[in-house]
Every structure is written in C-alpha cells, then in structure tokens.
Amino acid sequence: MASRIANAAKGIRFSSSATAANPWLAERVAIKEHAGPAAETWRKVSIYVCIPAVIAASANAYNLWAKHQAHLEHERHEGHESVKYPYMRLRAKAFPWGDDSLFFNPEVNM
C-alpha cells in the first residue's frame, strides 16, 4: 500500500502500462487517440468560424443601432405631435407618484 502511494506521488500510476492485457485501458487509449484530431477540428472551427461570425454580428448590431439613433434624433428635431386619444391613459385612481406610469419617458412615450 505504501509503495502505491509513493508511486502515485512520483506520478507513476499503478498498472497503467499494460494496455493489451486490460481491455478497458485499451479502449481509453483508443478514445484518447481519436479525441486528439476531433478536438483540433473543433478548435479550428471555433477560431476560424465562430470568432468571425461574432465579429460580423457585432458589426451588424452596431450599424442597426447607429441607424436607429439617427432616426430618433431626426424625430426629435422634426417635433411630431402626439395625439391624446380618449381611450389612452384611462385612470380609475391616480398613481401616488403622479399622472404617468412609473416607467413613463416623455421623449419616447405619448
């Protein structure tokens, strides 16, 4: 028992060199040999496909955001009027903080 612990401390595993005699170890070695090329394939996919796709999606999102901001700025300068329809903003009882809802934004909401 003490020799197993000493060998484990040195980095030598017990009974791990006889792969032909142990079918479980032979299967593990085969899986490890197969996993190397598969892992390399997925590493290349991650680097050469996923990263450029994320960069392209980020650029697209930024362009859409910039167009939306330009449109909102145009609407602020244009000064469109909001129509107060009688069926909008019906209140049975006033809010404690005022007439508008808690999340009311006068620049965006009517």
Verbal overview:
- The chain has helices spanning 2-10, 23-78.
- The model has no long low-confidence stretch (mean pLDDT 82).
- The chain is mainly alpha-helical and 110 residues long.
- The longest helix is centred in the middle third of the chain and has 56 residues, at 23-78.
- It starts with a helix and ends in a 32-residue tail after the last helix.
- It is elongated.
Give the helices and strands, then pairings.
Elements: H1 2-10, H2 23-78
Task: Give me the Rg, rounded.
Answer: 33 Å
Oligomer: single chain
The major β-sheet equals: none
The tally of beta strands, per DSSP, is: 0
**How many angstroms does the end-to-end distance come to?**
80 Å
Q: Structural class per helix/strand content?
A: mainly alpha
The arrangement of helices and strands along the chain is HH
GO cellular component, one term: mitochondrial inner membrane
Keywords: Membrane, Mitochondrion, Mitochondrion inner membrane, Transit peptide
GO molecular function, one term: enzyme regulator activity
Main location: mitochondrion
Main features:
Cyt_c_oxidase_su6a; Cytochrome c oxidase subunit 6A, mitochondrial; Cyt_c_oxidase_su6a_sf; 110 residues; 59% helix; single chain; mainly alpha; enzyme regulator activity; elongated; mitochondrion inner membrane
